[in-house]
Amino acid sequence: MKTAQGIAQRLLLPALLAAGFATSQAVFAADLDLAPSELAGSRHTSASQPGAALAVVDQRGSELLAEIAQRGSDLEAYILQSGYANTASVDQLGHGNSAWVSQAGSFNNAEIDQFGSDNTAHVSQRGNGNQAQIEQFGSGHGASVDQRGSGLTVMVRQYR
């Protein structure tokens, strides 16, 4: 699979960039074992997801970092970023999990880790220097974080 991944990175990513993805990046992958990484400019995206999964990344700004790792089936992850130096990561293992991160501002950090089934997590950050982390282990959990302002920190942990 590494050969296919290398070919995809050398051929597919330049074609996407030439098609107008220089100001906004999106990664759509379902039933693929492709891991695009480090698109041009100061916005960096990576996705790793064997199995049936959907990953969407939309970045508008500079020095943005988005990482999605999904292992399992019926998984969805969305990262929407605008501004400067925001970072977001989603790590999901299991079945039926969904994660969503939306960031606007500067120096925000969001991390979602979900291991189990049918978990849902949302993080919305508006402002500067906010930190949010959601960890869910087990099944049927839901968490939502909405940060509006600057210098806010929250951690949500659910185990079962």
UniProtKB/TrEMBL annotation:
GO terms for cellular component: pilus. GO terms for biological process: cell adhesion. InterPro entries: Curlin_rpt. Pfam families: Curlin_rpt. Residues 1-29 form the signal peptide. It comes from Stutzerimonas balearica. Keywords: Signal. This is Curli production assembly protein CsgB. Belongs to the CsgA/CsgB family.
